[in-house]
Amino acid sequence: MSDEEDVDQIPDLVPANKKVPITIITGFLGSGKTTLLNYILSKQHGKRIAVIMNEFGEGDSIEKSMSVGSAGELFEEWLELKNGCLCCSVKDNGVKAIENLMTKKGKFDYILLETTGLADPGPIASIFWIDEELCSDIYLDGIITMIDAKNCPQQLQEKKKDSSLNEATRQIALSDIIVINKTDLVSKIELKQLTTDIRQINSFSQLIETTHSRVDLDMILDLNAYSNSNSSSGNSGLEDVFRHRGFRPDEHQHVIDQTVSTLTLEKPGCIDKVLLDGFLQDLLWEKKFKNSEGQTIEILRLKGLLSLTSDDNHHVVQAVYELYDYHTTTPWDVNEERRNTLVFIGRNLDREILEHQFTQCLQSNSS
Ligand SMILES: Nc1nc2c(ncn2[C@@H]2O[C@H](COP(=O)(O)OP(=O)(O)OP(=O)(O)O)[C@@H](O)[C@H]2O)c(=O)[nH]1
Asked: Whose CA is nearest to atom 27 of ligand 1?
């Protein structure tokens, strides 16, 4: 059948102007990613859920398997990528391949991307995040990291020869939702210790404990963690976390891994965006700042809720490695105290230095 004939048969199930959320599911082999995918599919009858199983690190594989669930039935599609691996291709053949498939087959309600053998979800998350800015049909909804409760402690201890971060630490640092799975295989004490260790790396993200990846889907899907352009309320998932669900800033002051941790700064007042841009660019792009021991401060993930001098709305700022972006959300209430919160997840963080730089961006300091 030709492409044109195929286009005539687009199923009219999902509105054409609807943007399609994509969730990245990362985690070590055997952590329960496939079990989670199957669980989601079993609970989403009647929805068109596309599942992309991406075998990263396999060199020059050019086709990626995709299963599409439609009204309970599953069928297999192949994503044709001209330029090799989904994570390595430029803007994105990967995104284009998914969009082309939707042009031919109709839109999906949701896309789930399982990364197998991929150490670092950052680059692929950045691709989908950037592409939304470029008016893509797809937007990044969130990154879920599956943790194998039994094996994770050992994975966290792994030392890399080049002193780079081990995979488990990186995946935990970058995730929006951390699912500790296989809790039936560990004791309560072991689970508590693991939770503490994970919280020391990333104390911002939601942590969920499961067996057989059985999780309340409302907690992991439609997070809107990277933008608010798809929310009818003008609210963003991240703003919701800061303002309503709440988070416990810097619960843990001592870090076992001594390199990766979460640091939260909160300041009343309004921020000068030009000054903040300067600070973020020095921090993220130039890697200009060092901790008190002379080690470079490296940011893996940054999230913030800001009050800018320029207007009366809340602004969300966030970064994945060097890439950062702002979006505007809801207005501040007239009686609400204007304040700014920045959460840094990274290596060699130094409160004094980051606080000094952040304070320099406040309006009173700019005059
Ligand atoms: N005991 C126990 N086994 C589990 C649990 N969750 C998943 N499993 C089993 O663990 C094995 C690996 O689970 P998968 O879902 O395939 O893990 P994965 O992350 O997709 O791993 P790969 O398929 O190797 O990429 C399967 O045999 C599952 O049935 C759990 O909570 N407890």
From this structure: 30
Q: What is the pLDDT of residues 113-151, one digit of tens each?
A: 888 766 688 888 887 877 655 567 788 999 999 999 999
Strands 339-347 and 298-307: antiparallel
Q: First vs last Cα of the chain: how many Å apart?
A: 67
Residue 65: per-residue pLDDT: 55
Cβ 30 under 6 angstroms from ligand 1? yes
Distance separating alpha carbons of residues 51 and 234, to the nearest angstrom: 28
Please indicate whether residue 181, judged by its CB atom, sits closer than 6 Å to ligand 1. yes
Identify the helix (H) or strand (E) that includes residue 140.
strand 138-148
- Digit-coded pLDDT (tens) for 150-176: 999 999 998 888 888 899 999 999 999
149 CA to centre of ligand 1 in angstroms: 11
Q: Return d(Cα 204, Cα 233) in angstroms, integer.
A: 23
Q: Are 186 and 209 in contact, with CB atoms under 8 Å apart?
A: no
Q: How many angstroms separate the Cα of 338 from the Cα of each of 19, 265, 305, 314, 328?
A: 32, 14, 10, 9, 15
Q: Retrieve residue 365's tokens.
A: 């300091």
3-state secondary structure 289-348: CECCCCCECEEEEEEEEEEECCCCEEEEEEEECCEEEEEEEEECCCCCCCEEEEEEEEEC
The Å distance, Cα 97 to ligand 1 centre, comes to 29
Measured in angstroms, how far is the CA atom of residue 245 from the centroid of ligand 1? 30
211 lines ligand 1 (CB under 6 A): yes
Strand pairing category for 206-209 and 313-320 = unpaired
Q: Measure 23 CA to ligand 1 centroid, in angstroms.
A: 19
